[in-house]
Amino acid sequence: MKLVRKILLPIVPIYYLVTSLRNKLYDAGVKKSTSYAFPVICVGNLNVGGTGKTPMIEYLINLLKEDFKVATLSRGYKRKTEGFQLADKNSNADSIGDEPFQFYNKYKDDIIVAVDANRNNGIKNLISANDVPEVILLDDAFQHRKVNAGFNILLTTYSNPYFSDYVLPTGNLREPRSGANRADVIIVTKCPINISEDEKLEFISRINPKKSQQVFFSSIRYSNKVFSDESSKEIKELKAFTLVTGIANTSPLVSFLSEKGLNFEHLNFKDHHNFTQNEIDDLNNETLIITTEKDYMRLKQYESLKDKLFYLPIEAAIDKAESLNGLILNFV
């Protein structure tokens, strides 16, 4: 534990009490939570940092987009705009945020992408538009209790599960562990490919889910190719390159590339990093740049990087996906 977190340990009970009281007020109906007469699915977490929300939203998009008009609604973290924004051909990572722009870039012909820090306001704008969605996916909204989502998916990572963590500022939990009781489904993400059944049972016992909750396990599946807007390359054919990341947890990606025996230098920035012009100038000196799909949404706007910038796609591979799909489709 870092020294500063140890120093802040006395603040933990205060943070715990404040967040617990807030949840109790919502549970008791003292604070208002709005429900909707159509399917609203929330994907979120208790921990700060990367738990795989973006791959999970894309998993839901792929599951639902053929049969339903789907909209995603995100906060649009670190965007340079305010209020409700509907993604269109003029949108970019600065106007709607990197993750929503990723959704729009991949699925613009299939779904509606919107951002609004006020999720109720965002939903009201979506349902008052000409193209009304049939299902709304709330990205990173588990603590946004002003909306009472009909189906809550809680994500927690294999390497840092919420049941072993503590609330901020000493730990990484946004709220007490008891918040997990609001989830309909709990998914343990970023699991090893070869996780055993005994390990799964141990995890489930420590989660101690309610009878109404189901627990699933997922791992990250990486593509065998890297892509740009114009072309692609086989990973096995990559020579020396620079890996550029601005995500919360780089360990799975670095491990994957290292296991492939690839030769690369890693430039690791903070999550949702806004690249400065000096940093872009430095990247101009690189021969080949591999990045994440989220970071690609921020970097692709720089014409000087066009011929050397590629991203590595990922997707969530969920164990017993048929059961999870059935729960979601039954809800919708």
Describe this structure in words.
The model has no long low-confidence stretch (mean pLDDT 95). The radius of gyration is 20 Å and the shape is globular. β13, α10 and β14 form a beta-alpha-beta unit. It has two domains: 169 residues, Rossmann fold (3-Layer(aba) Sandwich); 89 residues, Rossmann fold (3-Layer(aba) Sandwich). 30% of the residues lie in helices and 22% in strands. α5 crosses α10. By secondary structure, the chain is an alpha/beta fold. Strands 3-4-2-5-1-6-7-8-15 form a nine-stranded mixed beta sheet, sandwiched between helices. The protein has a four-stranded parallel beta sheet with strand order 12-11-13-14. InterPro entries: LpxK, P-loop_NTPase. One of its GO terms (biological process) is lipid A biosynthetic process. Pathway: Glycolipid biosynthesis; lipid IV(A) biosynthesis; lipid IV(A) from (3R)-3-hydroxytetradecanoyl-[acyl-carrier-protein] and UDP-N-acetyl-alpha-D-glucosamine: step 6/6.
